[in-house]
Amino acid sequence: MGSKWQMERKKDPYYKRAKAEDYRSRASYKLKQIDKKYKIIKKGNTVVDLGAAPGGWSQVALEKVDEEGIVVGVDLNHIRALPNENYYRIKGDFTTPEVQGKITRVIGGKAKVIMSDASPELCGIKNLDQLRSIDLTNSVIGIADNLLEQKGNLVMKVFQGPEYKEMLDGLKRKYRQVKTTKPPSSRKKSSEMYVIAMGYKHKVKK
Ligand SMILES: C[S@@+](CC[C@H](N)C(=O)[O-])C[C@H]1O[C@@H](n2cnc3c(N)ncnc32)[C@H](O)[C@@H]1O
After folding, report:
1. Would you say the CB of residue 119 lies under 6 angstroms from ligand 1?
2. Which CATH superfamily is domain 25-200 in?
3. Closest C-alpha to ligand 1, atom 18
4. Any binding-site annotation on 5?
């Protein structure tokens, strides 16, 4: 007998599908559903996957970019290797200049897509968790400011909190189009949302 969480997971259709289709995570379907709707990743793109372990989003991105593009997965945790020669892994904290420098060196220029499914480590204290979430979101937006090429796309997971609207307004000034979505594979009880910011314009000074 497993735990309640393990039992629920076994019944989850996306978990079963991920196992059957050889994806490392049920989260793969979130990116598939987002990309089907917004067409954010194209053949030949350079994609940076922030908070990539175990690698489900990276697998989907690799299918999309094909052999002509590259995907870089970054995580605090080890990401097991994938067979694709155009997949690069970086272990570390992407909020640090050191890891950001490594990403820049690996892509050798700018990225067409920055995506982040990163979740902060939650401690259960609401205010503190909200702050951690905002910090992580701001880091992802800052990385996109530095690494995205003109007309590039950003996809990131966010948790709705007090600064949510302000964050969206900030993105609307920098991107041609900003959408929010909760893909069908995102659990209803989770407060996560995904922001899709398309067509990066330029860095806007506050
Ligand atoms: C929900 S998982 C990502 C799942 C992934 N999209 C997939 O499909 O397999 C969130 C990940 O974000 C990573 N993460 C959170 N904060 C991070 C940070 N500052 N630097 C690097 N990775 C981070 C965690 O270690 C965790 O592996």
Report:
1. yes
2. Vaccinia Virus protein VP39 (3.40.50.150)
3. 93
4. no
pLDDT digits (tens, 9 = 90+) for 37-85: 999 999 999 999 999 999 999 999 999 999 999 999 999 999 999 999 9
ipTM for the predicted complex comes to 0.99
Tell me what percent of the residues of the chain surpass a pLDDT of 90.
75
Active site residue 157: yes
Q: What integer pLDDT is reported at residue 204 of this predicted model?
A: 52
| Ligand 1 atom 27: residue of nearest CA | 53
Cα of 67 from ligand 1 centre, angstroms: 25
Q: What's residue 127's pLDDT?
A: 81
- The residue whose CA is least distant from atom 24 of ligand 1 is 51
- Own/partner pairs, 187-193, CB within 8 angstroms, 24+ separation: 191/159, 191/160, 192/119, 192/157, 192/158, 192/159, 193/157, 193/158, 193/159, 193/160
- Domain ranges within the chain, ordered by starting residue: 25-200
pLDDT tens track for 129-169? 888 888 999 999 999 999 999 999 999 999 888 889 999 99
Select from 88, 43, 49 the least CA-distant residue to 68. Answer: 43
Judge if the beta carbon of residue 28 lies within 6 A of ligand 1.
yes
Among 115, 148, 87, 110, CA closest to 27: 115
66 is in an annotated binding site: no
Q: Is 73 in the pocket of ligand 1 (CB under 6 A)?
A: no
